[in-house]
Structure formats: C-alpha cells, structure tokens
Specification:
Helix content is 51%, strand content 11%. The protein is mainly α. It folds into two domains: 133 residues, no CATH class; 197 residues, Orthogonal Bundle (hpI Integrase, Chain A). It has a three-stranded antiparallel β-sheet with strand order 5-6-7. The chain has a two-stranded antiparallel sheet with strand order 1-2. The protein has a two-stranded antiparallel ribbon with strand order 3-4. Helix 1 runs antiparallel to helix 2, helix 4 packs across helix 5 and helix 13 crosses helix 15. The longest helix has 21 residues.
Amino acid sequence: MGRYRMDRIKDGGKTYYIIRHTDDMSLVIAPTKYLKHKTKSNRSPNTVRRIAFSLTVYLSFLEENHLTVGDVLEMKYDRQHVHFTDFLAYVKSGQHTDGKSITCPANTTCNTYLRDVFGWFQFLELQDQTHGNLKVLESHVVTFTNPIGLRFSMVRRSFRGYLKEDEHIGRTIEKSSIEVLLENCTNIRDKVLLLLLAETGFRIGELLGVKLSSDIDIGRRQIKVTFREDNENSARAKNASQRRALISKETCRVLLCYLSMYRDVLMKSGYLFAALSGKNAGKPLRIKAVYAMLERLEKKTGIEATPHMLRHYFANERRKSGWDILLISNALGHKRIETTQRYLNIAGEELEEASLAYFESQKDLLSVDALL
C-alpha cells in the first residue's frame, strides 16, 4: 500500500487518528475530518483506528484506479456498484498488503472495510450537498417495538454486493472450566477479576476502569461502569453511559478479602485492579496484562479463556435462567437498549431484581473457602 498512513495524536486526554500522505507527510483533510467526528461522537479509539486503516486502504485503491471521491459519487448506479465490489475483491486478494500477508482476509473483514468506507461517504454527503450520492445504498424502512409497546420506524441503507459471510457464533466458556481457572490463579486479584467478568458481563475495558472511591458499593454489592476517557491505563467503556451490576454474596466476600489484603497498593492506584508487584506496583492494571494472565492460565490448564468468552458465559447463563432478552441486553450495555433505558428509567430496578433472583437460585462458581 504505502501511499497513505494513519497516525495517532493525543490532545486533552483524547486520542485522535489522522491520515497523511506518505510522500510528504501532509494531512489528508477529508478523511481526517471524518475520523475527528467519530472521536467527538465518543466512538471507541479502537473503532476509530480500524476506520482509519480502512480509509487508508480505500484511498490507495482510489489512487491506483486514478479516481477521486467526487468521481465515485458522480458514477451511475451500475458503475458505482462495480467499483465497490472491485474494492472488496482488492481487499480479499490481499493487494492492500503489498504482499506482506500470506493469508487473505475473511469475508467479514472485507465487508467491514467497505462499511467503514460507506460511513465516510455518507458523512461527505451530509457535509457537502454539491457532490453526487451513493446510489448503491438502497433505503428500506425497519419497524420495531420497544419494551413498553411503542412502535418506531427508521430508514436504513444497505448494499447488495457484500461478500457472503460465514455464520458467526460467539464462543463461550463452560462453568466447569471457569472453576478450574479459578483454582489455578496465583493470586486473589486474578480470581476477583475472573469472577467479576463472569458475574457482571462487563467488557474488560469497563472493568479495568472501575475506581475504588466512586464505582463500588459494597453495602449493596454493586459495581458501576462509568464512561471516562482519561483513565491512566487507557481502559474505556465502549458507550458514553453508566450502568450497574449486582454481584453474589460469595464473590463480594472474595472482593472484600482482596481489598483488605492489597489495601495500600490499591489506594495508591485508585482503581479496583492494579499491578501488585514489580516496577509497576500500584499502577492501574492494563488490558495487555489481563491477556498475559489468561495466557499463563491456558498454558497451565489447557483451557482457553478471553474476557469476551466470559461475557458470553454471563449472557448464556442468564438466558438459561429465564432472563428476558431485553434485560440481558441491558446488562451487557448494548447501545440500543441503553437508549430505551433512558426513556423508561425502570430497567435498572428490573435488572437488580433479576440479579437477586439469579444468585439465590444458582450454585456459586466455586466454594468461597476454596478461594480465600
């Protein structure tokens, strides 16, 4: 590829991504404005970084075909359709890697690149009405009903030329495997981390962003997710919102023991999870360290586990226990359900009641005495 590159800059606690020409390092204005818009819209830095990479690939594709964005928008439907399917083929064949990769991207990855490109084009349409438009995106009306029975309709635009994707089923982990992992943890912090991932359904970035002074209510056995962009360990909640999760009595006991055992280190950190020893002792735990811990456990036990697999475990166990799908979505922090929650203002109470009922009816992950 080589014609364009993305760079990262920090300003006022925010991470921004920009795109430059590689020959003179000058800024490519139009896509960089779009990336700034996505950052200002509180999109995850990882998401914005992915979009930035997708756009560098597309800009190179345009240049190789001697085209501009304006040329594409002025194309007739059939030519525009061919252009975007050619882009999918370009990515699928690995041409965007300059032969640096020996494996071709999955169809899902190729489609994601194109969806990112379409997002930029739609932004350009809204910004500058003098351009043409994306004729290949077909509009259709989607109607849905919210939890209190109100019907809503919205217009969505879709492309008929995406590559066929394999059906994806999220990987989960069995309760028995979690028990083995807990038994093989080398310290109580890692046990608390696994227990909370399994019992709250929080994303790892959300959990590592939990602060001792403001996000934990021991009396009510609740942990809160708070959206922040300035966490020292770069942990970040995915959506700009708050939610709470109830933990079991047994896990709360283990948590209290952990807080007591490492009180000085944790007070220095200010976060629920911190490095316990070495040169980083007292600093907030980073996501990289969590994955390293899980890799060590896998070598010891032969059991693969990721934070996302534990999140799937949470969802599946609640579904088996009879939770309504809307409650599960609420607990997982899915964006559309959070929007509904702001209107209803009752989902939090329902979630707490369901959590209480769940912990009363289910056997604990592991005997608390075995953990302490």
